[in-house]
Specification:
This protein is α/β, with parallel strands linked by helices. The protein has one domain: STAS domain (Transcription Regulator spoIIAA), CATH 3.30.750. It is built from three helices and five strands. A five-stranded mixed beta sheet has the order 4-3-2-1-5, with helices on one face. α2 links the parallel β3 and β4. The longest helix has 13 residues. The protein is globular. The two termini are about 15 Å apart.
């Protein structure tokens, strides 16, 4: 029997930066996977936005919001953008004030597939 990973990050280069497609369940248990993917992107000689695309995200709790907040701080001069977030996530971002430091815009960002996915336990 094969079990699916609860969370993974698919990485793609976009026209204005890098797109991290979040797939599965982002919570306190899997947040380290996203943290690792963001750190990897910040280490690359690459500039532009870091886009977190939530179109394939099935679930996110406070642990997920916390790692997004961390990513915004870690990004420094680069802009962190969250796309296709479910309405409840946008509401939580507004309640917590996270929407003041992170752009929770909407829409699809065109990207070209790249070399890897990052999977969690």
């Amino acid at each position: 029997m094969q079990f699916e990973q609860p969370f993974r990050v698919d990485v793609a280069d976009g026209p204005d930066g890098v797109q991290l497609l979040l797939v599965g369940e982002l919570d306190a248990y899997t947040a380290g996977v996203l943290r690792g993917a963001v750190v990897d992107e910040l280490r690359r000689d690459h500039y532009g936005d870091i886009v977190l695309d939530c179109a394939r995200l099935d679930f996110m709790d406070g642990g997920g919001l916390k790692v997004i907040e961390w990513a915004a701080l870690a990004a420094g001069a680069r802009r962190l953008v969250v796309r296709n977030a479910p309405p409840v996530v946008c509401q939580l971002a507004a309640i917590t004030g996270l929407d003041r430091t992170v752009d929770f815009g909407d829409g699809v960002v065109a990207a070209t597939p790249r070399r890897r996915s990052v999977a969690g336990a």
